[in-house]
Amino acid sequence: MGDILIQSKNLKKYFFDTGGWLSKQKNIVKAVDNVDLEIVQHETLALVGESGCGKSTLARLLINLLQPTDGEVLYKGENIFNLRAEAANQFKKQVQFIFQDPYACLNPRMKVIDIIGEPLTTHKLAVGKNKEIRVEQLMNLVGLRQEFMNRYPHQFSGGQRQRIGIARALALNPELLICDEPVSALDVSIQSQILNLLKDLQAQFGLTYFFISHNLSVVRYMADRVCVMFLGKVVELGNCEEIFEQPLHPYTSFLMNAAPVPNPKLRNRARLLLEGEVPSPMNPPPGCRFHTRCPYVQEICRVEEPKLADYGGRKCACHFSLT
Amino acid sequence: MVLFIIKRIISSIPILLGVTLLIFILLHIVPGDPVTLMMNDHVDPDTIARVRAQMHLDEPIYIQYFNFVWDALHGDFGVSYKMNRPVATLLWDAFPNTLVLATAAMVFSWVVGVPAGILSVVKKYSVIDYFFMGSALLGVSMPVFWSGLLLQYIFAFTLGWLPVSGFDNILCLIMPAVVLGWGAAGTIARLTRSSLLEVMGNDYIRTARAKGLSAIAVLFNHALKNSFLPVVTVMAIQVASMLSGSVITETIFSIPGIGRIAVNAIQTRDLPLLQGSILFTTILVILGNLAADMMYFFLDPRIKNK
Amino acid sequence: SLMNKSTSKNTLRVAAINDPGTADTQMNTEEYNLPLNIFERLVEIKTSAPGVSEMVPGLAEKWDISADGKVYTFHLRQGVKFHNGEELTADDVVYTVDRMLNPKTKALNTDFFDMIAGAKERMEGKADTTAGIKAVDKYTVEITLAQPFAPFLANLATPAASIYNRKATEAAGTQFGLDPEKTVGTGPFKIKEWKVNDHITMVAYDQYWGGKAALDGIIIKIVPDADTQKMLFETGELDVFNCDLARTQIPYFEGSDKWKNQIVKGPRVGLYYYSINENIKPFDDVRVRKAFQMAINRQELLDKLYFGKGKLVNTIMPPGLLGYNPNASQIAYDPQKAKQLLVDAGYPDGFSMVIASASDRPETLRVNEAVQAMLKQVGITVEIKQMDRASLLSTRKQGQLPMYMDIWSADFNDPDNFIYTFFAPRNAVTRSYNYKNETVAGQLEQARKMTNQEERYKLYQEMENQIVINDAAWLPLFSPEHLFVVQPRVKNFKVAWNGWGDMPYYGISLEESK
Amino acid sequence: MAEDSAVIDEHKINGTAIAEKDMMLAVTGLKTYFFTKKGVIPAVDDVSFTVKKGRIVGIVGESGCGKSMTALSLMGLVPAPSGKIVAGSIVLDGKNLVNLTEKEMCQVRGNEMSMIFQEPMTSLNPVYTVGKQVMEAAILHQQLGKAEAKEKALEMFKLVGIPEPQKRLDTYPHQLSGGLRQRVMIAMALCCRPKLLIADEPTTALDVTVQAQILQLMKKLQAELDSAIVLITHDMGVVAEVCDDVTIMYAGKIVEQANVFELFDNCLHPYTAGLLKALPTLRKNGERLYNIPGMLPNLLQLPKGCRFFPRCESASAICAEQEPDLVDVGQGHLVRCLKYRG
Amino acid sequence: MESQLQAIEQPQYVEESFLTELFQSIKQNKSALAGCIVLLIFISAAVLAPYIAPYDPYHVDMSQQFQKPSAQYLLGTDMFGRDILSRIIYGSRISLVIGLVPTIISMMIGTMLGLIAGYYGKKTDYIIMRTADVVMAFPSLLLAMVVMYTLGASLLNIFIAISLVNWAGTARVVRSQTLVLKEKEFVEAAKIMGVKNWVILVRHLLPNCIPSLLVLFTLGIPEAIMAEATLSFLGVGAQPPMASWGLMASSGKEFLFMAPWIAIVPGVAILLVALAFNFLGDGLRDALDPYLKQ
Ligand SMILES: Nc1ncnc2c1ncn2[C@@H]1O[C@H](COP(=O)(O)OP(=O)(O)OP(=O)(O)O)[C@@H](O)[C@H]1O
Ligand SMILES: Nc1ncnc2c1ncn2[C@@H]1O[C@H](COP(=O)(O)OP(=O)(O)OP(=O)(O)O)[C@@H](O)[C@H]1O
Ligand SMILES: [Mg+2]
Ligand SMILES: [Mg+2]
């Protein structure tokens, strides 16, 4: 393993929801709860997990879009939440983000050329004709027709918008790319094109990816390591191959099991589906957070919270990991 | 929320001090001496000097200001030079009238402005749109002293439906409210229109339509609230301008209100009265803007209330 | 509507532009509608015919003046009751005069009494009483002047000299003139209700010594806008419309079948004039001033801007004023000669000057605009500088105000009210004339002390000739006519002797309309 | 346009008359164009397909090929003013939607037919709580009172697997994660139990467990109500799991249409073949993914012949010249490729 | 394969510049075009005043007082016998400038401060918005009067007076929109890209405020013209014999029944300009609206 590029320590993000008008009721959403994570240079760390478990929140914390409730994020050893101007600028140049929602992150009043070109102009890398050329290049890379340069975001289809976002994130040749479901809106062909592109870039420039996805086949294809989150907590972390072959945490195995298979003949295969009450981050159950749905639940799970323990290079937080 | 209101009110105190200081300084910069103004043309300078001394106008300005603030803190806003009555009484009598007038005008401008804006969106670039745009602009580009006179001529003099002026029943309120609220209605209508058109392009409007809401329902239930932020802001601004800008309306319709008092006060350099009336409107404007800021939270949950 | 249930039909409804602020005339230098109706003075001025007035006994039945013109003895009318039931006594008169001069009162009209012996000391706080006034007995008051002062009686007839009741006034304190209950006079009306900036109601005082008024009361509605007043008048909500507020409506009323017979007019003992500031170059040159006088077509101004309602005046004292000189020399309109004079004075190409204009008087602005065009004909470029009244007055007091047009009407019927007001050395500065003529200055002081009226008027006319014709220090324009339109039900409406809009309403009656 | 639809009112598709009663949706010759300054964009060009009651039809295709526009056309929500349905008929349960007035259409939308939009973030009104937005449809179409509607919304939230549904009713969209928003959208669309559900990538933002749950839910509701679903997706896995029939679109046109088993076994169109080849699978790792070379053509300047020809590996000279028709190769398997003509 | 692709693509991005695009979409909008034409007429009247005015606008001829509109005096004469048409033509010089300059100044100040207040929030917001409160609380008429009394009545001071009063409203409106906009994801996207704050303000927030600003601007013009009229009415506006529309309209009030044309003609001129600007504003709004881009 190489050097640690970015690292989170005891990272917490709680959302305090004051409720409505004059209402005293307060909800605390523990979106990210005590997460320690390391991303090593040149690797792809994939993050999977139930939707709403805090993946986007974690990603946003890593890029200093949200102020953490507690904990710190170290980028190349420096806490990103109190970088000085020059370093902050450098950080913003080296770390890029692909948003989960492709449309909301595009200014509806800007043309595509300006959107993709914005990081270039911001960091004074290209202007005028140069910018145009670079934007064309980027658009070609992500499979967008360069003639659409002068269109506005709303004139594109969902997948095309997603690609605009990707092109923008690639514009600066970042070191670390945080991708929040970058390919979910793309058809398989474009998806493989983008995935290939990301892989090529990694091979060529040694990029590091933090890759959030629900599509396990994509994760399997992309990731070196996989991190599984459940309700704000990391429940399993390990080598991609191993996790797919032999999940340790029951939740992980459910995930693997639930993935759809592109073969209609297998549609009636026996599948384990999660039962039981869906736990909520507003009111997480005591003990193991997964216990309400876990088929292997024991008494201890209801009371004691399992620690993230080491299983020969892999980590898992379960009292009875499936070894 | 309650905390927020209290904080805002406390933080308004410096503004009030600022306003009074501003008036104080301005009135001392402006040429013209209140005593000279009070006096008959053939009064000799000795008398003037004597009266000035009696009114403490010969003291240094900061002492005068300090005295004013000190007295004001004790609820004493002084006695009007011109009207000889305590400022507080004068304002207390005049204020309800202005408030009633401004409220009526506001209600008029909302009741007319918002629907007009909506209608001109529904029928964009149609005769109705042009009609509302025309009337809105008529309200903005017609001097109040004209529109007042014209309404009086038509509705009071020719048709005899409404009283010419006065302020003792609800009928009397109609014309002044229209005159004062017309321009505001125009602005509201135009702003509602543009803001609505802006919002109509959003995806959630499509979602609402997909639910089967009619175009009108979509407009009212989904677009309006989203588009209301600038409109509410402007409404709050208009509260200010209606309270302070009602002079001409009050004059034309013989309404004994604050606006007239304030303009008279500045013309006669009646410092205590001017201070008092502006302080009054300032408080109202602050409250109006506070209301608007609170409306923001209500209108858009994304605005963080901190 | 102006009437509410409790108001009788027999109430005269008039309008005023401003709220008078206070009825206390010692504290008020402009608004006299209330004092003229609720108070009375020792001497009154009666309008005998339009523009003609005479001094008549008021609260004083008769008076004696000592031979040296310094001691005035007034014999009060007996049995006069104040609104609070108190009888009028000499002590009330002493109290009234002393109150004005008492520095604690902060009175604004002290100049009407400051010629009384001991007034200065009283005003400066060096004395506790006014030496020159005393009650001889219950109904006799004696006033001693520091020096003979010819216009003294006329002075006493001004609203400022209204007589108050000691008991009521002392009890009222600062509320005197404000609180209807506490504002007590002897006049034919008393205040019943006062809503500031809205309206004031007066009702007839049944025990008025001259007999109860024919009107049940008067309601003064504060209507700041002239057009609104006109509209109210036409819809029958006001009984009187004062055309001075909207002269441009005169042609309308005169052309209207309904109203043309309802116009009541009277001359104004007063005149429009242009001041000339001799400190401002080149008006230090008499030729320039004469050119200025001649370049202005006063007849055209009167005809076009005032619809011919008035009379050209060539003097300082207007027609109707005692001492008015109908045979004064004319100021001709002669632009050619004016140009010549400017050439003589060394301004062949003219010059630029400033005319000040009070911003609250659109009427004077119009005259100024017309004059601007007229002066342009003789090569003078005029810049009209609009100033708000406060700035204008304070600049004027410093003697630095440029030319301005204004109107002056008589407070009391005496030449002193005009010539002294403008041309006494100190006033000539504070009114921005900066007129310096030793002879005239001496003559002004002398005239004040003269007791022979005929000779006194002669002297004034002499001064007038010197100032207007020889020194060209003043440009009289015209004496306007004051028009009122009244509802048919209003009877016996007369324009006040001096042409004021404020007037006593006693004597007016209303005819019940069918 | 009116004349067009009159002609097509016969509900005839490719010459085969289809029995009225088990037909839920029949789209015939649908053309939705964008009129821009630079020219006309045929985003949906002559699309025809049918959905029988109780069936799920999947629409798959390259991103930007006109899937969402087809869906929006069905809903009558093509973005005005530049977009317009220029031809075709859309018959829902015997009613030609193209002929309906806006008012009648309002009765259909959200009630008989509803849609889950692709972008859950921007498709929810930011200033209302999600509960209110779900209740709205119920109040409108089912004449429910406020309280009942709230019950209903709560029930729906539970069904789509939103944790702590009670509390979530009162949250605003920006406080929810992408997946939660998408589930809210789904709840909203299913709330009135529509006869036809159009789901535009309903599960992209969901993790697989929730996805499986939602798909099951959709199937269950469909079975209960005998309704039909049009499912737009990129996920071939999802297609394989739930769809009965599949339509493949490319550049505004349908290129292949078949039963799901037939399609996965025996896909005919080179584009479809490419798609299946490009799938990453859970099993294989390491080698480069296949992707179809080239890009979707610019709809403004479509190539003369087959629209897929520039990217086609098995293209021949004629493909550049002649535009292929959609031909039936048996058992309702349609394909638009010159290889299969005649 | 690649070569085939190239063959199909004709190079076709001859994109028009922003301005030509704007111009074209306005040209297509009938009412905006009408607005443009009316404005052009007024502007050329202002520029060419000495050549097209039939009479000297300042020439007083009392004998021609109150002439009805006729062949000789197309729009009649006023109380001084001055030709109203000529005065309107000359007046357009002042009134257009008064309508535009202070409005532009106050919009610029207000927009800037509003953006800053809304975006930075906290103390900055507090200071700016409380200042705006003070300005708004101080009756605008009074503030303007005080400025004029103190500095004297002149065109420049009218600008100052009106600008001083009007910025606060714009600032509040812009701030209110900024408050919402700054929470949007595209702003976040810009932030993490390292876009400087002021660039975010100008490039991302400002364009999204444009529609409201256009409304405020187009309505601000007649308001400024009217504000000048009110100031003139109080004697502190444009100085006679200068002819500003506001002054003409207000001084004509007295003759509204006797010689209505004196007041109505300048009133109509103001209305026309207001309409023209508003039509143009609507056109611009549509032209800048990406959703309406064809
Ligand atoms: N308002 C518009 N103006 C012009 N072209 C548009 C507009 N909206 C969409 N388009 C174009 O129409 C085509 C079809 O878009 P559509 O949204 O239907 O694609 P899609 O198949 O849903 O793709 P995705 O899977 O990426 O969502 C796209 O090429 C898009 O560029
Ligand atoms: N601004 C906010 N206020 C309150 N709660 C929030 C806010 N943003 C997110 N949350 C909550 O935090 C939790 C985690 O959200 P997050 O967006 O990180 O989920 P996610 O893992 O990305 O899910 P998905 O895969 O569905 O996108 C959710 O329960 C969400 O409702
Ligand atoms: Mg997420
Ligand atoms: Mg789509």
Automatic annotation (TrEMBL), chain A:
Q: Which Gene3D superfamilies match?
A: P-loop containing nucleotide triphosphate hydrolases (3.40.50.300)
Q: Name one Pfam family in it.
A: oligo_HPY
Write the record's keywords in alphabetical order, separated by commas: ATP-binding, Nucleotide-binding, Transport
ABC transporter domain residues: 6-256
Q: Which GO terms describe its molecular function?
A: ATP binding
Belongs to which family? Belongs to the ABC transporter superfamily.
UniProt name for this protein = Oligopeptide transport ATP-binding protein OppF
Species assigned in the record: Sporomusa silvacetica DSM 10669
TrEMBL record, chain B:
List UniProt keywords, sorted A-Z.
Cell membrane, Membrane, Transmembrane, Transmembrane helix, Transport
Protein name per its UniProtKB record: Dipeptide transport system permease protein DppB
State which residue ranges cross the membrane: 12-30, 99-119, 131-155, 167-191, 212-237, 278-299
Q: Which PROSITE patterns match?
A: ABC_TM1
Q: Where in the cell is it found?
A: Cell membrane
Q: What is its main location?
A: membrane
What is the membrane topology listed in the Swiss-Prot or TrEMBL record? Multi-pass membrane protein
Q: Which Gene3D superfamilies match?
A: MetI-like
Q: Which gene encodes it?
A: dppB_2
Q: Which CDD domains match?
A: TM_PBP2
UniProtKB/TrEMBL annotation, chain D:
Membrane topology annotation: Peripheral membrane protein
Keywords for the protein's UniProt record, in alphabetical order = ATP-binding, Cell inner membrane, Cell membrane, Membrane, Nucleotide-binding, Translocase, Transport
Record's InterPro entries? AAA+_ATPase, ABC_Ni/Peptide_Import, ABC_transporter-like_ATP-bd, Oligopep_ABC_C, P-loop_NTPase
Q: Where in the cell is it found?
A: Cell membrane
* SUPFAM superfamilies cross-referenced by the UniProt entry: P-loop containing nucleoside triphosphate hydrolases
Q: Of which family is this protein a member?
A: Belongs to the ABC transporter superfamily.
Example GO molecular function:
ATP binding
Q: This chain belongs to which protein, by name?
A: Oligopeptide transport ATP-binding protein OppD
The chain positions of domain ABC transporter read: 28-276
Q: What is its main location?
A: membrane
From TrEMBL, chain E:
Instruction: Look up keyword Repeat and say if it applies.
Output: no
Location within or outside the cell: Cell membrane
Domain ABC transmembrane type-1 residue range list: 92-281
Kindly name one Pfam family recorded for this protein: OppC_N
Does Cell membrane show up as a keyword for this record? yes
Q: What kind of membrane protein is this, topologically?
A: Multi-pass membrane protein
In terms of one coarse class, where is the protein primarily found?
A: membrane
Instruction: Give the stretches traversing the membrane.
Output: 32-53, 94-120, 213-235, 255-280
UniProt keywords (A-Z) are: Cell membrane, Membrane, Transmembrane, Transmembrane helix, Transport
InterPro entries on file: BP-dependent_transpt_permease, MetI-like, MetI-like_sf, OppC_N
Q: Enumerate the PANTHER family for this protein.
A: D,D-DIPEPTIDE TRANSPORT SYSTEM PERMEASE PROTEIN DDPC-RELATED (PTHR43386:SF1), OLIGOPEPTIDE TRANSPORT SYSTEM PERMEASE PROTEIN APPC (PTHR43386)
* Protein family membership: Belongs to the binding-protein-dependent transport system permease family.
Protein name in UniProt: Glutathione transport system permease protein GsiD
Q: Which organism is it from?
A: Sporomusa silvacetica DSM 10669
Task: Recall the taxonomic lineage recorded for the source organism.
Answer: Bacteria, Bacillati, Bacillota, Negativicutes, Selenomonadales
